[in-house]
């Protein structure tokens, strides 16, 4: 049988076009491998970490198919209804972490940072914390600020020399930035000591005559970091203020500083940093203390987002209360950890740090519960500590006690040069790697008491569903429009499903 010249030409063009498609990324790029070529089926990637030994293990793809009846619990994923925008996930840069990294051979140091910041092979952290000067894990030396010269209100003696050292924060941040991209939020435990009435309990208030000097201090910090290659994107004036352990500065005073001193100074200096408000010690504290300040319409226009810590452990619904009162302000969870002897939840671990994978289930449920109550970001405290839960800084007058053992994301044994990945690392990575900045939380319904779950739609249109199974092995039915999957869930596990939400979008 022969063909016309025109037919042969069209046939060749079709074959050539298909060949180009095959060669151009192997049909689909690694980042967008979510869909099958058949319109009636949606190819879905599956990743599992479990008590039985899976660790971010890629399973065989599954496909949404036409719905059938099932007696299994049902999770409905509805891409039409969305909630908050996700800013990112991460942890905190502290000198203690860089000290631990520097105990490793260069190859292992790079391996540790790649596992945290690489978005393909690692956790892909995108939102980090970096304290302003000293905190309890500024472990490379004694307590410090950036200006120890009393009454230097013009900041003539301001310097960040320590942060540029081998264990310094800038050194740490720049090393991490070789492996991924992230934004940074910065809070401060204390201003320079000379700005306070005293460091006695109840007297750790900044004198009003130093408010302008403190505004200059923040501005110098931002500019000095930028001049050394590190951009601070978000500024919190104080960490866990209006309490007894750090600065006793009230939120009313912080509001006055922001409105009348810090914002004018930063504008005059050309800074583009975004101002955050809070860093409360726990979730309920925010709804208790913020309204007296944030109901000031003039102040609230200068605030980018609200930041809270998780040391109440389980009062998640207070974040929804906070969102309802200030719907225009994103809420970030920016610090939480285990700390001995006083900061461990009921039925928490008796020894730190915690090596067991099973501990990750606690943190994974906390992440989901914060996100389902309007958190737009989730940042853990220490990213890296050693086998003793340290090293820590001791400075009682600054609220930093001795024997301050804490739990990190990664544990580095400085004696035997070994890196250990905690359960927290794996559960957090199921969010940080797959839910990218700019994603929206979307509606998910159903389930059962045994499973906890949350869904997202990324900027690239991929849908991500994270499911934690807190009990024995089970199946669940996942529906997307009029399609479904019967998904097995391993006992005590977290499962991530990712598919192309632009196909068969309902």
How would you describe this protein?
- It is a single chain.
- The protein is of the alpha/beta class and 506 residues long.
- It folds into 3 domains: 1-32; 36-84 and 440-500, Immunoglobulin-like, CATH 2.60.40; 87-432, TIM Barrel (Alpha-Beta Barrel), CATH 3.20.20.80.
- Helix content is 25%, strand content 25%.
- It contains 12 helices and 20 strands.
- A 9-stranded mixed beta barrel has the order 1-2-19-18-3-15-16-17-20.
- Strand 10, helix 11 (360-372) and strand 11 (375-382) form a beta-alpha-beta unit.
- The longest helix has 19 residues, at 5-23.
- The protein is globular, with a radius of gyration of 25 Å.
- It starts with a helix and ends in a 6-residue tail after the last strand.
Tag the structure with descriptive keywords.
TIM Barrel, eight-stranded parallel beta sheet, nine-stranded mixed beta barrel, Immunoglobulin-like, disordered N terminus, 3 domains, single chain, 506 residues, alpha/beta
Content-based structural category = alpha/beta
Question: How are the strands of the biggest sheet laid out side by side?
Answer: 1-2-19-18-3-15-16-17-20
Determine and state the CATH class of the largest domain: Alpha Beta
Query: Main sheet, how many strands, which sense, barrel?
Result: 9 strands, mixed, barrel
Number of helices: 12
Poorly predicted runs are: 1-40
Rg over C-alpha atoms, rounded to the nearest angstrom:
25 Å
Please report the distance between the alpha carbons of the first and last residues.
46 Å
Mean pLDDT: 92
Shape: globular
Number of domains: 3
Question: What is the architecture of the largest domain at the second tier of CATH?
Answer: Alpha-Beta Barrel
Using the coordinates shown, work out and report the CATH topology of the largest domain.
Answer: TIM Barrel
CATH superfamily of the largest domain: Glycosidases
Beta fraction: 15-25%
Which bin fits the share of residues in helices?
25-40%
Give the total of beta strands. Answer: 20
């Amino acid at each position: 049988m022969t063909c016309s010249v025109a037919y042969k030409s069209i046939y060749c063009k079709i074959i050539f076009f298909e060949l180009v498609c095959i060669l151009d990324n192997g049909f689909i790029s690694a980042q967008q491998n979510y869909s099958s070529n058949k319109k009636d089926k949606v190819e879905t990637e599956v990743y599992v970490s479990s008590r039985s030994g899976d660790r971010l293990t890629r399973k065989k793809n599954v496909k949404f198919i036409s719905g059938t009846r099932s007696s299994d619990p049902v999770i409905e994923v509805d891409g039409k209804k969305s909630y908050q925008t996700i800013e990112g996930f991460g942890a905190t840069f502290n000198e203690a972490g860089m000290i631990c990294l520097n105990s490793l051979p260069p190859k292992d140091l790079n391996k540790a940072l790649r596992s945290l910041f690489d978005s393909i092979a690692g956790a892909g952290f995108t939102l980090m914390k970096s304290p302003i000067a000293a905190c309890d894990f500024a472990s490379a030396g004694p307590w410090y600020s950036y200006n120890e010269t009393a009454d230097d209100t013009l900041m003539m003696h301001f310097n960040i020399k320590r942060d540029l050292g081998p264990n310094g924060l800038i050194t740490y941040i720049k090393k991490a930035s070789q492996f991924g991209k992230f934004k940074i939020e910065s809070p401060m435990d204390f201003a320079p000591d000379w700005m306070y009435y005293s460091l006695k309990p109840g007297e750790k208030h900044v004198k009003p005559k130093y408010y302008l000097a403190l505004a200059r201090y923040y501005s110098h910090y931002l500019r000095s970091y930028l001049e050394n290659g590190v951009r601070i994107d978000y500024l919190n004036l104080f960490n866990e203020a209006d309490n007894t352990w750090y600065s006793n500065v009230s939120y009313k005073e912080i509001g006055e500083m922001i409105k009348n001193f810090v914002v004018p100074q930063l504008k005059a200096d050309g800074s583009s940093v975004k101002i955050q408000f809070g860093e409360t010690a726990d979730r309920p504290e925010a709804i208790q203390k913020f309204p007296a300040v944030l109901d000031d319409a003039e102040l609230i226009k200068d605030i980018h987002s609200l930041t809270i810590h998780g040391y109440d452990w389980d009062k998640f619904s207070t974040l929804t209360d906070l969102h309802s009162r200030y719907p225009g302000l994103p809420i970030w969870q920016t610090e939480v950890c285990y700390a001995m002897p006083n900061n461990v939840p009921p039925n928490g671990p008796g020894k730190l740090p915690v090596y067991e994978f099973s501990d990750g289930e606690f943190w994974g449920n906390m992440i989901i519960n914060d996100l389902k109550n309007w958190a737009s970001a989730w940042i853990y405290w220490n990213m890296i500590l050693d086998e003793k839960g340290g090293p820590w800084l001791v400075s009682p007058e600054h609220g930093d006690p001795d024997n301050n053992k804490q739990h990190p994301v990664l544990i580095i044994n400085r004696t035997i040069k070994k890196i250990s990945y905690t359960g927290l690392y794996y559960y957090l990575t199921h969010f940080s790697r797959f839910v990218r900045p700019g994603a929206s939380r979307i509606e998910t319904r159903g389930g059962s008491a045994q499973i906890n779950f949350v869904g997202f739609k990324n900027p690239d249109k991929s849908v991500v569903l994270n499911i934690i199974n807190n009990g024995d092995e089970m199946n669940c039915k996942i529906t997307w429009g009029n399609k479904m999957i019967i998904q097995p869930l391993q006992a005590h596990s977290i499962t991530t499903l990712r598919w192309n939400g632009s196909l068969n979008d309902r």
